[in-house]
Design goal:
Blueprint: H1 10-32, E1 45-48, E2 61-63, E3 68-69, E4 80-88, E5 100-102, H2 103-106, E6 113-122, E7 128-132, H3 141-148, E8 155-162, E9 171-180, H4 181-194, H5 196-240
Parallel strand pairs: 1-9, 5-6
Antiparallel strand pairs: 1-3, 2-4, 4-8, 6-7, 6-9
Helix pairs in contact: 1-5
């Protein structure tokens, strides 16, 4: 009778398999959690430096005078934003409400006017810390469009976003811009023609920046992968034993 017994590292093998699964889960968590949570910040309130807005829609709109709480990003790579409430006055608008679009839609639109609202964030001394131009792509296209369509005494809220609002931000003022769409298209075409090379350089610079960022992310991923491979190697050595 053959009394040879099968060695019992079976349970050990199962143990190492579970370790391997744990390592794979660790890698998945590392690669899937690149966004770090944003550091905690004290509540931040902005007040309107002036209720009268600046620019082409001055007198047609005013800022509702109250405290505006900043909503902070939940991740270190996100955006802070603040909702500002605007009220229409009885002053006549410099455009027909049925014949105006926001700037991002102007290029492909037959509307004769394009318009928008911007914001300037100020410190306690009234110095501009950061701003969003009135012709920039808005945080919400629907909100910006709705604000341009208000009737007298109606109110509407517009959200403005910032990559990271400075901690010393104290107040803000709203800006505005209205332009004939055909003039805007002519200016845009001329700017494209005369600044094609700078734009190309800017694009190349942006692409280079993205590549550098991707390289940094890749290095971090490779470091994690190396550590995982090292653990896997140790597991295989144990299995051989």
């Amino acid at each position: 009778m053959n009394n040879t017994q099968v060695p019992a590292p079976k349970n050990n093998k199962k143990k190492y398999i579970w370790i391997g699964i744990g390592v794979l889960l660790l890698i998945a968590l590392c690669f899937g959690g690149n966004e770090e949570p944003a550091p905690e910040r004290a509540e931040q309130i902005l007040k309107a430096a002036q209720t009268e807005i600046k620019g082409d829609l001055k007198g047609c709109y005013e800022v509702v005078d109250r405290n505006y709480k900043v909503k902070f990003s939940t991740t270190s790579y996100g955006y802070d934003f603040v909702n500002v409430e605007l009220k229409r006055t009885d002053k006549k608008l410099p455009y027909d409400r049925k014949d105006v679009v926001i700037y991002p839609e102007a290029e492909e639109s037959s509307a004769h006017y394009c318009a928008g609202f911007g914001i300037e964030v100020l410190d306690a001394d009234g110095e501009v810390l950061c701003k969003t131009s009135a012709n920039a792509t808005p945080y919400s296209w629907d909100e910006m469009t709705a604000a341009l369509q208000l009737l007298p005494e109606e109110t509407s809220t517009i959200g403005f976003n910032f990559q990271r609002l400075p901690e010393n931000a104290a107040s803000f003022r709203v800006t505005s811009l209205v332009q004939k769409n055909d003039e805007r298209k002519t200016e845009a075409a001329a700017a494209t023609k005369t600044t094609s090379e700078p734009k190309k350089e800017k694009k190349e610079k942006s692409e280079k920046s993205l590549l550098e960022e991707a390289a940094d992310d890749t290095k971090a991923m490779l470091k994690v992968a190396d550590e995982a491979l090292e653990l896997t190697g140790k597991m295989l050595e144990l299995l051989d034993e």
